[in-house]
């Protein structure tokens, strides 16, 4: 089974703390359903722990919804950097990809990042996949909980874009409800506790603001804060349409809740460089940041 498992981003991982102790504990309640979901994976070793659940009426041969919990003890990074790295890993697996996030928050005293990925036609499969995830930086481990929605691939579908006819309205409403419920579950029910006290209370961590990024995309460093002029553009004037026309299809799209967004492209000069094109909520270019390893 071809699964878009985020564990591939780490070279090494480790075992989580025992939930029965007062150590750091990740709360992942049963997914809300009339019939409890069934556990299909529950494994751990000296590097990692992973659990997976699917609805009671689904089979492993035809998964439509899957909830995955993962704990990693090595390869620590900020939640936002983890999400950005995942975007770069996943982009090559999809014919079309739209990525929203990372949206950084402080949740119960721990740094978290939320993200949504809409993969149109995952390569090597006949599926379109929506991924909703929450990454949490703990003190004992790094945690990721994600919900995937899988459906038959539509060759005409663009990742993250819904087009439908009048007779498909109810099906679209049901899909949007699934997506909304997944987001709500991750934000409201999945939580990391510094400890569980004798009364069963989830104690908070001590983080008060999101951590600073550890690195530029893919471990690259920023080579230029604004290289707009190098590519014939003017910050404050050029538009996203003009940038797309010149550079073609972006590697990823990162949309912020306030309307600002970033398009990532391979730099036309090659040399392993990437361009991060920043736009305001009106789609006007604010900067082109160039990244590279040299």
Architecture overview:
Helices cover 14% and strands 37% of the residues. It starts with 24 loop residues before the first strand and ends with a strand. The chain has 2 domains: 198 residues, Protein Transport Mog1p, Chain A; 76 residues, Beta-lactamase Inhibitory Protein, Chain:B, domain 1, CATH 3.30.1450. The strands form 3 sheets. Strands 2-3-4-8-7-6-5-13-14-15-16-12 form a 12-stranded mixed sheet, with helices on both faces. Strands 1-9 form a two-stranded antiparallel ribbon. The chain has a two-stranded antiparallel sheet with strand order 10-11. The longest helix is centred in the middle third of the chain and has 20 residues. It is mostly beta strands. The radius of gyration is 20 Å and the shape is globular. About 8% of the residues have low confidence.
SSE succession: EEEEHEEEEHEEEEHEEEE
The number of helices is 3
Largest sheet: 12 strands, mixed
CATH architecture of the largest domain: 3-Layer(aba) Sandwich
- Overall 3D geometry? globular
Helix/sheet category: mainly beta
Rg, please? 20 Å
The residue-averaged pLDDT reads 80
């Amino acid at each position: 089974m071809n699964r878009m498992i985020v564990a591939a981003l780490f070279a090494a991982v480790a075992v989580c703390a025992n939930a029965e102790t007062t150590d750091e504990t990740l709360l992942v309640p049963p997914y809300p359903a009339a019939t409890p979901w069934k556990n299909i994976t529950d494994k751990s070793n000296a590097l990692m722990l992973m659990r997976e659940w699917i609805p009671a009426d689904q089979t492993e041969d035809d998964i439509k919804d899957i909830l995955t919990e993962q704990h990693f003890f090595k390869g620590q990074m900020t939640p936002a950097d983890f999400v950005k790295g995942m975007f770069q890993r996943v982009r090559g697996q999809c014919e079309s990809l739209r990525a929203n996030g990372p949206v950084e928050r402080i949740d119960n005293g721990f740094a978290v990042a939320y993200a949504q990925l809409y993969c149109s036609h995952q390569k090597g499969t006949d599926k379109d996949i929506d991924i909703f995830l929450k990454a949490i930086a703990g003190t004992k481990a790094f945690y990721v909980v994600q919900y995937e929605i899988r459906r038959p691939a539509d060759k005409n579908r663009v990742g993250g874009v819904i087009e439908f006819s009048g007779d498909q309205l109810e099906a679209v409403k049901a899909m949007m409800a699934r997506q909304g419920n997944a987001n709500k579950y991750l934000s409201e029910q999945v939580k990391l506790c510094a400890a569980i006290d004798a009364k069963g209370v989830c104690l908070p961590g001590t983080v008060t603001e999101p951590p600073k990024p550890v690195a530029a995309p893919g471990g690259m460093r920023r080579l230029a804060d604004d290289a707009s002029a190098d590519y014939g553009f003017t910050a404050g004037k050029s538009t996203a349409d003009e940038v797309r026309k010149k550079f073609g299809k972006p590697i990823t799209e990162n949309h912020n809740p306030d309307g600002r967004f970033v398009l990532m492209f391979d730099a036309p000069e090659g040399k392993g460089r990437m361009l991060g094109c920043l736009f305001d909520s009106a789609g006007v270019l604010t900067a082109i940041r160039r990244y590279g390893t040299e």
